[in-house]
């Protein structure tokens, strides 16, 4: 069976995209799944959070045709792999702009390894350019992390428009797979009110699991590891474990 390919996207920065890719990927791995994570952000936060700096092969070299998919994939541990990023990726949009089929470059490579994984998670950059389009063209689903803040859904209209165009022109299989709330504090009235508003707006697209505000989630990247290895008894570990189980249930049902 071919992998579920999921883009984690929101062009608003600081919403927990990278944290979610790292820890959702680790949670699915702990549930016995083969997972590949792809860092499509030139800031390379996903790569650095997992201890990969200045990689010999990267998603940039892959998109440029200077690396094979096999060489670009790094093994973090058994059945948990990553394709890292680097700063040079920031120039890729301009460099690839004249390439024929430029929106499908990543998809062409990922199709070669889809059968090797259960889940492929793509950490999208906080923009709606060619890198994000490549991620969407490659994916079955898009997940949105949203902060429980007043402006959480502002700007999502543009993102949804881009997804609709990708569905119409490039990838008819793409679906909005779900929305989950991050950095949530039950004690804050604003957080509770915004959660209620997001629930009304997205209905059953909203995951039941809420990622609570948790200092361990911010500390884990400094140790270049995921929350389950850093502090398995933390609220962050519990929440991402619950989210991984919910993702597993939803994607099996929709498979």
Layout: helices, strands, pairs:
Layout: E1 4-8, H1 17-30, E2 35-39, H2 45-49, H3 59-64, H4 69-72, E3 74-77, E4 80-83, H5 92-96, H6 105-110, E5 119-123, H7 130-138, E6 141-147, H8 156-169, E7 175-184, H9 189-202, E8 206-212, H10 215-219, H11 227-230, H12 235-254
Structure description:
By secondary structure, this protein is of the alpha/beta class. 42% of the residues lie in helices and 18% in strands. The chain has twelve helices and eight strands. An eight-stranded mixed beta sheet has the order 3-4-2-5-1-6-7-8, with helices on both faces. α9 links the parallel β7 and β8. α1 crosses α12. The N and C termini lie close together (10 Å).
Feature tags:
255 residues, alpha/beta, eight-stranded mixed β-sheet, 8 strands, 42% helix
Task: Write a short abstract of this structure.
The protein has helices spanning 17-30, 45-49, 59-64, 69-72, 92-96, 105-110, 130-138, 156-169, 189-202, 215-219, 227-230, 235-254; strands at 4-8, 35-39, 74-77, 80-83, 119-123, 141-147, 175-184, 206-212. With 255 residues, it is of the alpha/beta class. Helix 1 (17-30) packs across helix 12.
Q: Helical proportion?
A: 40-55%
Mean pLDDT across residues: 93
Number of strands: 8
* Fraction in beta strands: 15-25%
Radius of gyration: 17 Å
The major beta sheet can be summarized as: 8 strands, mixed
SS-derived structural category: alpha/beta
Q: First CA to last CA: what distance? A: 10 Å
